[in-house]
């Protein structure tokens, strides 16, 4: 082996140990595949070697194929051949798994004749999350090993199976009893010398009722809405019951290439790397000091405050919930208890964890109780005067070195920070509702926010199980600023003749988690209304959010008041189109002189989605986001943008700036839509043939 190879071999007695050392996650890059082939050849031809162990250095077993190679033409040796070579070995081969054996990594383990795992290890085939299917015989070997039903569960969900569950399912053979995986692997490999190889390819798939596959198809179709890879996975596993092993692998290979080359997989891979790129922030590195956060105070015991509080307790922090009166505090405490209870019912939290968590909760009306807390998150009413008053009091009450965060969704962080004598400690932490579930956390840096406070917030996001994205300070930051453009277009389209349920259906079918009108009703039409009332910079356009304003003024706030853009039956969240609203829209359009016409599905998609792209481009021009991919992460994780389209900016790249600029010019010509002004960045990209990814 050349010295630079990430794969090495050493013999201990009769056992050859092959070690893969390819940080950070031992992905199966070309040189790893090549190294494995060379070492296998060496072990096979070595007469002293009677069994072989494959294991990894570093924090994990192989995490899969090297996803970064997927945009390049494949290079030999192919993973399928590597796995086949392992299995063909005439000496028993043992996979010694620690960390996670994922995707191609688990397929390597399935090529091995036996599998030993550390007690805290996990295995999985998460390819579906990247729009792929296991393409190195996973769909053919796993059903033979653990049965069709369980194999489908694992491959279709992509979920990791902890060692103990993997053992029960038969996916692994043994779990270590102590901490020394290598020593136990060595001992086990010696035992296996007498057993000889045991090849999964020679096993039969246990017969199943063929109707099972169509049942799975039905379930998947409803859940995955147009994704290609789940259907290919089902077909490939189905073929494992119909074809011999080699023919099954051939079919799997074809599906695998098709999936890999699909725009869906390219978008999902983009999302994977985009979510990892957000932690790389200019001016912050591993040497940046981070403040320790053990105790958190949340100001405001409403739904949002309680959700943030619950997430903080789950992250192991002490929590003080502050509000002005007993009634609000009791309600907040009840909400947190209810969230724990629901967690227990769903099996996510144990009773003991609930009791221990609730023990860390204190409620108070007294700011003096905040003197020792490490972080305060203000979640009071979205009003500048109120927020400034709160921050003034926090400045008086809190210790030096506290982080003072506001959960504002739109307001100026610098103005809030100016209410304190320590603007360097003030930051925006914009949670999304429901705060204990939504993965996005917009981390808003003010002009004076220190790098230390930003780095600490990024770390906190991880502890809370969230994806923290650092953004700049402007009205609505990244997410809500873009939402404004998207919502404005929806509102205009209503007046131009597109019914609310039609717009919602078109955008839902396109992949959005929810149409904008159903979303408005869910969020509450009063929320946006109050924010617009407070703004002094609204455009001089009588059609601007006209219908939403009218509904809010009539007390039609959405789901919470039983009617908004839609009607809701008692206790139901299903939107029912309301003819009265349609009549109101029609007569308002007439009054405002907006001509109603038939509007195509394509126009709805273009106008709403291009509004996002145009505002996203302006946000980049203004430096509010540093990377286009950060915007994608925000929209995928906070606003239900379809992940398989990669986020609005990635989607723009798949269309090209030329087409988008042409559409913007076309919209500008529609009477009343003159606000579709030229976006300089898009013009530049059109001229130079570049993409946001560049
Ligand atoms: C596959 O296997 C296809 C085959 O079936 C068939 C082929 C024919 N490749 O997540 P982290 C990087 S498809 C390249 O922050 P953690 C990642 O970008 C693959 N790079 O760490 C990051 O880089 P950076 C199926 C990868 O501890 C760094 O590693 N496998 C890969 O929170 C650390 O990552 C999967 O889908 C990769 N495969 O979580 C597993 N994986 O430092 C994908 C990671 O530059 N990976 N990187 O930002 C994971 O789920 C998590 O990374 C893992 C560790 C759980 C392993």
Features:
six-stranded mixed sheet, about 50% helix, globular, eight-stranded mixed sheet, about 700 residues
Shape: globular
Quote the distance from N terminus to C terminus.
38 Å
Helix content: 40-55%
Number of helices: 28
Overall pLDDT confidence: 96
Main β-sheet, spatial strand arrangement: 12-11-10-13-14-15-16-17
Radius of gyration: 28 Å
Strand residue percentage: 5-15%
Q: Provide the structure class.
A: alpha/beta
Say how many strands there are: 19
Low-confidence stretches: none
Question: What does the main sheet amount to?
Answer: 8 strands, mixed
Ligands bound to this protein structure:
(S)-3-Hydroxyhexanoyl-CoA
Compile the SSE list and pairings.
Elements: E1 7-12, E2 15-20, H1 30-45, E3 51-56, H2 79-88, E4 93-97, E5 100-102, H3 104-111, E6 114-117, E7 122-124, H4 138-146, H5 148-157, E8 161-162, H6 163-169, E9 174-175, H7 181-192, H8 211-224, H9 229-240, H10 245-260, H11 263-277, E10 295-299, H12 303-314, E11 318-322, H13 326-345, H14 351-359, E12 361-364, E13 375-378, H15 384-397, E14 403-406, H16 413-417, E15 426-431, E16 440-444, H17 451-463, E17 467-471, H18 479-496, H19 500-510, H20 516-523, H21 525-534, H22 546-553, E18 566-567, E19 576-577, H23 579-592, H24 601-621, H25 628-638, H26 648-655, H27 657-668, H28 680-688
Parallel strand pairs: 2-3, 3-4, 4-6, 5-7, 6-9, 10-11, 10-13, 11-12, 13-14, 14-15, 16-17
Antiparallel strand pairs: 1-2, 7-8, 15-16, 18-19
Helix pairs in contact: 1-2, 2-3, 4-5, 4-9, 5-9, 8-9, 9-10, 11-25, 12-13, 18-24, 21-22, 27-28
The structure holds (S)-3-Hydroxyhexanoyl-CoA.
């Amino acid at each position: 082996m050349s010295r630079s190879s990430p794969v090495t071999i050493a013999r201990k007695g009769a056992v050859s140990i092959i070690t893969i050392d390819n940080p950070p996650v031992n992905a199966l890059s070309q040189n790893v595949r090549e190294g494995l082939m060379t070492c296998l050849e060496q072990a096979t031809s070595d007469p002293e070697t009677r069994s072989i162990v494959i294991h990894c250095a570093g924090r994990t077993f192989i995490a899969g194929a090297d996803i970064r190679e997927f945009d390049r033409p494949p290079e030999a040796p192919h993973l399928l051949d590597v796995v086949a070579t392992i299995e063909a070995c005439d000496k028993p081969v043992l996979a010694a798994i620690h960390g996670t054996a994922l995707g191609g990594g688990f397929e390597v383990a399935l090529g091995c004749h036996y599998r030993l795992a550390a007690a805290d290890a996990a295995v999985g085939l998460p390819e579906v999350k990247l729009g792929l299917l296991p393409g190195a015989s996973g769909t053919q070997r796993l059903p033979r090993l653990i049965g069709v039903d369980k194999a489908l569960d694992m491959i279709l969900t992509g979920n990791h199976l902890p060692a103990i569950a993997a053992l029960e399912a038969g996916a692994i053979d043994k779990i270590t009893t102590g901490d020394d995986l290598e020593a136990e692997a060595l001992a086990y490999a010696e035992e296996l010398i007498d057993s000889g190889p045991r090849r999964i390819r020679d096993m039969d798939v246990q017969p199943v009722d063929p109707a099972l596959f169509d049942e799975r198809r039905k379930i998947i179709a409803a859940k995955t809405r147009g994704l290609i890879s789940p259907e290919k996975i089902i077909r490939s596993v189905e073929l494992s019951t119909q074809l011999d092993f080699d023919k099954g692998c051939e079919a799997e290979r074809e599906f695998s290439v098709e999936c890999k080359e699909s725009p869906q997989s390219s978008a999902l891979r983009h999302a994977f790397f985009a979510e990892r790129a957000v932690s790389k922030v200019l001016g912050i590195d591993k040497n940046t000091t981070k403040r320790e956060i053990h105790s958190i105070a949340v100001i405001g015991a409403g739904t949002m405050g309680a959700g943030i509080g619950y997430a903080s307790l789950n992250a192991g922090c002490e929590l003080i919930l502050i509000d002005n009166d007993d009634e609000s505090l009791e309600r907040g405490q009840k909400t947190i208890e209810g969230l724990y209870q629901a967690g227990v019912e769903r099996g996510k939290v144990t009773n003991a964890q609930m009791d221990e968590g609730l023990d860390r909760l204190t409620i108070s009306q007294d700011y003096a109780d905040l003197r020792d807390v490490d972080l305060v998150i203000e979640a009071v009413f979205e009003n500048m005067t109120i927020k400034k008053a709160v921050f003034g009091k926090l400045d008086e009450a809190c210790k030096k070195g506290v982080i003072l965060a506001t959960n504002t969704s739109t307001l100026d962080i610098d103005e809030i920070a100016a209410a304190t004598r320590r603007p360097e400690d003030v930051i925006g932490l914009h949670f999304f509702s429901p705060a204990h579930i939504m993965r996005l956390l917009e981390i808003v840096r003010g002009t004076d926010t220190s790098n230390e406070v930003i780095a600490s917030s990024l770390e906190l996001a991880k502890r809370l199980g969230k994806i923290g994205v650092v953004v700049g300070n402007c009205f609505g930051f990244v997410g809500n600023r873009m939402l404004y453009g998207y919502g404005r277009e929806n509102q205009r389209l209503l007046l131009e003749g597109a019914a609310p349920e039609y717009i919602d259906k078109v955008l839902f079918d396109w992949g959005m988690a929810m149409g904008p009108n159903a979303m408005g009703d869910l969020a509450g039409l009063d929320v946006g209304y109050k924010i617009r009332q407070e703004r002094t910079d609204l455009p001089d356009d009588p059609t601007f959010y006209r219908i939403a304003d009218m509904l809010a003024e009539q007390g039609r706030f959405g789901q919470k008041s039983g009617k908004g853009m839609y009607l809701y039956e008692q206790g139901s969240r299903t939107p029912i189109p309301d003819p009265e609203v349609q009549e109101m829209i029609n007569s308002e359009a007439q009054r405002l002189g907006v001509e109603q016409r038939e509007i195509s599905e394509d126009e709805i998609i273009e106008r709403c989605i291009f509004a996002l792209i145009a505002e996203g481009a302006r946000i980049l021009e203004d430096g509010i986001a540093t990377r286009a991919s950060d915007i994608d992460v925000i929209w995928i994780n906070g606003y239900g943008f379809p992940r398989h389209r990669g986020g609005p900016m990635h989607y723009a790249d798949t269309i090209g700036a030329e087409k988008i600029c042409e559409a913007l010019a076309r919209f500008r010509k529609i009477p009343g839509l003159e606000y579709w002004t030229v976006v300089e960045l898009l013009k530049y990209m059109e001229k130079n043939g570049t993409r946001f990814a560049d």
